Amino acid sequence: MSEKLLRKVLEDFESYPAEEVQRLIREGLEKNEVYRSLLDFQPIGHIAVGGERQILFVSKSVQLLLPCDRRKRTREGMKLDSLMVDADVKKFLLAVFRGREKPDAREFAVQMGGETRIIRISFASIDAGSFPFVDIILQDITEEKQKEIRLRRSESLASMTTMAAGIAHEIKNPLAAMKIHLQLMRKVLQQKKSISDAEAERYLGVLDEEIDHLNTIAVDFLFAVRPMDIELMLGSVNAVMDDLITFLAPEAEEKHIRISRNLDSFLPNVEIDARYLRQCLLNIIENAFAAMPGGGTLGLSTRLDGDFVTIRISDTGTGIAEGEIQKIFEPYFTTKATGTGLGLTVVYKVIKEHRGDIFVSSQEGKGTVFTIKLPVPQSQRKAIGNKEV
Predict the structure, then answer these.
(1) How far apart are CA 13 and CA 263, in angstroms?
(2) What is the 3-state secondary structure (H, E, C) of 221-288?
(3) What domain range is 213 assigned to?
(4) Of 174, 197, 218, 183, whose CA–CA distance to 340 is shortest?
(5) Max Cα separation, the chain?
(6) What is the pTM of this model?
(7) Are residues 140 and 54 in the same domain?
(8) What CATH number is given to the structural domain containing 69?
(9) 13 Cβ partners below 8 Å, 6+ apart?
């Protein structure tokens, strides 16, 4: 039964025979059952909630995704909070519907059938004319999370292998220097049976220097491989950028570098750890400053690109050679005389922990551009026809 025909019947109800009305109602109920069945057997659960937290519809898959009061699972018309069993989920949903929490997607670990599952809860406001309601969407993302963990472990293992080879190479030089100077000291002692204070100071000075070098290598290595305590929370990329611009302004002025700021005013929030993201961006910018010893322009911009927030950092510096650009994120690769070669490795690691991507393009003598893409959470994406809860 089409909506147009139903509306026509309602407008002129008395002119329709009772048998015709009954037939139309039966057809409507049958179609309603089809639509309900389609939702019931979807892996994604739906709870339609109207005013006063009254449940209008619960798909059968909900009871497979969340602990529910089984005595009430099919009872529509009850309050939402009387269906929920998990205390954390119940507290969150009540806070959202009471306006104490934003209707942002949230993930919960729940016990189902003797195992822990990760459930993502998100919201969609549906404007059905005079019958608006909120659709609570439940999705089991356990497998997705496990794949992410396996991928990170694989990437971490590959990185560790590369870094182990790198650190083995790095420690060879200071160890060789220490061995040479110890041999020289031994030779002097064998020849003269004694050593002057000046000679001892010279040899010991080299040993001290190389020990400090080894310590620096070890500290940087530990920082690069240590698990990051990143805590992702919805936040503003522009706020991090503005904080950096304020912090860098004095140094930029001293180095005759102009900062060009172009931040999109209407960016959605993304999941970030502001501490790590700030340090990550600072590492890139410090490299840009080093590439412009005579001054230049640092470009900082943000924009919304589909389902991603894009951060762009550009400089007008010396650029990177074509043969080196593919290696800049590799551990212990550096073009600086005093660089450790781990700064951009850490940058890459931080962006990956943010589930993002980083790209670089460069031309020698013209400058370099770093582009970072961070995913916009589902709850922050603008859905056509949807309003905020």
Answers:
(1) 59
(2) HHHHHCCCCCCCEEECHHHHHHHHHHHHHHHHHHCCEEEEEEECCCCCCEEECHHHHHHHHHHHHHHH
(3) 158-225
(4) 218
(5) 126
(6) 0.50
(7) yes
(8) 3.30.450.20
(9) 21
CA distance 313 to 294: 19
What is the pLDDT averaged over residues 108-129? 82
Q: Which two tokens stand for residue 227?
A: 């698990």
Among 202, 225, 248, identify where a domain stops. Answer: 225
Q: How many distinct helices (H) and strands (E) make up the chain?
A: 10, 13
Within this chain, do residues 178 and 243 fall inside the same structural domain, yes or no? no
pLDDT tens profile 332-387: 555 554 445 556 878 888 898 899 999 999 888 889 999 999 999 877 765 333 44
In one-letter notation, the amino acid at residue 143 is E
**Residue reference for tokens 């490299």:** 287
- Residue 100 tokens read as 């104490």
At a CB cut-off of 8 Å and minimum separation 6, what does 169 contact? Answer: 332
Q: Is 151 helix (H, G, I), strand (E, B) or coil?
A: helix
**Chain segment 258-303, per-residue pLDDT in tens:** 999 999 988 999 999 999 999 889 989 988 998 999 999 999 999 9
Cα 223–chain centre separation: 20
What type of residue sits at position 296? G
Residue 217 reports pLDDT greater than 80: no
CATH number of 370's domain: 3.30.565.10
